[in-house]
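Propose amino acids for all 346 sites.
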């Protein structure tokens, strides 16, 4: 088993990565927590695959909430339903909430755990590649509003993250590819060796190593800037235009991973418009090889207006993450007016 630990403002988050970890998750959880009861939140796709395997490992009362799968359910109304289930199950502040699922389940459950009774212990068991390499680690939780993604949320570290690379074997190819968009992001912002690893035809047989390298980067970044006021913004490479495209497609046209892929290419082209070396060609080739889209198809004026409502806008500037060379990213504030000109040329 590989382990990483992340020290945040409110304590330590332990991250375990091991094949077949789900089969003995109950033991790992019992070594860290002492709850009287456990509540598992999962979604309608993951529940039939893994919920009973997890539930039967506990010798204490276990309840669950199964939410409908999909980004469109990452809403306050879903969180409210979870609160009612937690109360009906008799959950107290000494008990444990487990998120079993992809990034949507993880973000919603994390927010419910952060706010129910002002905070209940949380364990993340991510079941998509995207959630394993990114969303289950680092404590960002939240929900979407009509106005945009992740606009309501909290920083709330899971005490434990259990990553079992074998559970992603049941992912559809397109959902696996979504996670690869975040993997490519880590390669470009911090460690080009990851790009070499995933360029190999047999990279899926080494996916555990790829996951470990990505989580290590996320751990290191969050340890320095847990609350996203500086360095952590580099994790948003590709996300600024990506979030705008996701929003314009009503969160159904593009998945998060697809939007990030398109957003990374757009950010590379934007850097070239500012006079930097154009690094978009090898990025496009790799994303295509991984089955991800690369071209922004939305109206550029609409993209500009959508990204102005993004959380990463400060006053009249937008913080863009630009990659100077593979492995080196910089936070670059760009004036709205100048950005408008660039976006129209993309
Ligand atoms: P998702 O949670 O919607 O999962 C994608 C699909 O895969 C769903 O239909 C789900 O039911 C299914 N699924 C999950 N595990 C499965 C398995 N093992 N086998 C078969 N099907 C499975 O989406 P996602 O891509 O995991 O996450 C995207 C979300 O994560 C977005 O809301 C995004 O904003 C968020 N996110 C959060 C952070 C963070 O730091 N908190 C970081 C990146 C992304
Ligand atoms: N996925 C971006 C972050 O965790 O900051």
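Proposal:
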């Amino acid at each position: 088993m590989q382990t990483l630990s992340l020290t945040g403002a409110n304590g330590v988050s332990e991250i375990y990565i091991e094949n077949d970890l789900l089969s003995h998750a109950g033991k790992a959880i019992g070594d860290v927590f002492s709850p009287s009861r456990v509540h598992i939140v999962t979604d309608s796709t993951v529940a039939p695959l893994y919920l009973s395997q997890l539930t039967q490992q506990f010798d204490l009362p276990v309840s669950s909430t199964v939410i409908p799968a999909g980004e469109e359910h990452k809403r306050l109304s879903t969180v409210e339903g979870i609160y009612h289930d937690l109360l009906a199950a008799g959950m107290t502040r000494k008990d444990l909430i487990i998120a079993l699922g992809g990034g949507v389940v993880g973000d919603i459950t994390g927010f419910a755990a952060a706010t129910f009774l002002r905070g209940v212990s949380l364990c993340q068991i991510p079941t998509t590649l995207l959630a394993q390499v990114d969303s289950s680690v680092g404590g960002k939780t939240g929900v979407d509003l009509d106005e945009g993604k992740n606009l309501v949320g909290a920083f709330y570290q899971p005490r434990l993250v259990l990553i079992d690379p074998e559970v992603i074997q049941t992912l559809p190819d397109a959902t696996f590819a979504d996670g690869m968009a975040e993997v490519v992001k880590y390669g470009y912002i911090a460690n080009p060796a990851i790009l070499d690893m995933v360029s190999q035809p047999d990279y899926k047989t080494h996916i555990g190593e790829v996951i470990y390298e990505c989580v290590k980067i996320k751990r290191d970044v969050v340890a320095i800037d847990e609350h996203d006021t500086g360095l952590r913004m580099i994790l948003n490479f590709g996300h600024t235009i990506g979030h705008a495209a996701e929003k314009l497609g009503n969160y159904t046209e593009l998945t998060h991973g697809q939007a990030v892929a398109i957003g990374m290419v757009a950010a590379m082209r934007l850097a070239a418009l500012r006079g930097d070396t154009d690094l978009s060609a090898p990025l496009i080739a790799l994303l295509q090889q991984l089955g991800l889209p690369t071209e922004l198809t939305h109206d550029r004026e609409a993209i500009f207006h959508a990204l102005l409502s993004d959380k990463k806008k400060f006053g009249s500037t937008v913080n863009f993450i630009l990659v100077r060379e593979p492995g080196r990213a910089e936070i670059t504030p760009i004036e709205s007016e100048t950005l408008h000109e660039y976006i129209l040329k993309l």
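The longest strand covers residues 317-325. Residues 134, 138, 140, 228, 232, 235-236 surround glycine (ligand 2) (CB under 6 Å).
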